[in-house]
Amino acid sequence: MKGKGVGKKKDRRKQQFLIALLLFAVMTGILAGYVAYNELSGGRNSVYTFTNVEGREKHDSLTLSLEKGETWTDYSAYPEQPYGAQYDFSISSDSRRQFQGWMVEIVFSEPPVIDSSWNGEFKSGGNRIYYLPANNAAMDLTTIFPGTIRTFGAIIYTKNHTDVEEVIVTGHWYTPIFQQRTFWILAAVWFILAFAAVQNLLLWR
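Above: the chain's sequence. Below: its structure in token form.
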């Protein structure tokens, strides 16, 4: 009788171990899926079009500012596009997320010529200028962190006195996995189930 009781007890502990192991495996899949989804969803681009370009304008958590500085006329530098101006841009975020991989498209009413620029790479095409933030050993502006401001600008010449018509900002929002409350809740449940599985294994053995 005693042997049968011990056998039943071992069977019960084996069953408890298998249940704990199954729950642990399910939780592992849920946690891995959440991490994978976080990485994949963070790569989807968001596009914001700013039309109130002289001054400040906010979309979502991004604020874009443009200050058009002094203007001048210089036929010696660009005879066909003699009107020059300095354009200073700033972009900031009040989100708790990071804005990564961002780029800017600046639309003019006529083709511009880039004389000089700072804090990134500027290229022109048609009536647009394309900006990529600096990314080198001395300066990395490719991520807008919460509460930070990124500045960039250029000296630009045009055929006539003109203004920026719109600015298009593209990038994706991302929250590091270790800053997410849901991740830590799932991780805590995972550790509890892992401990339960090990404990039941030791009792069974």
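The mean pLDDT is 87.
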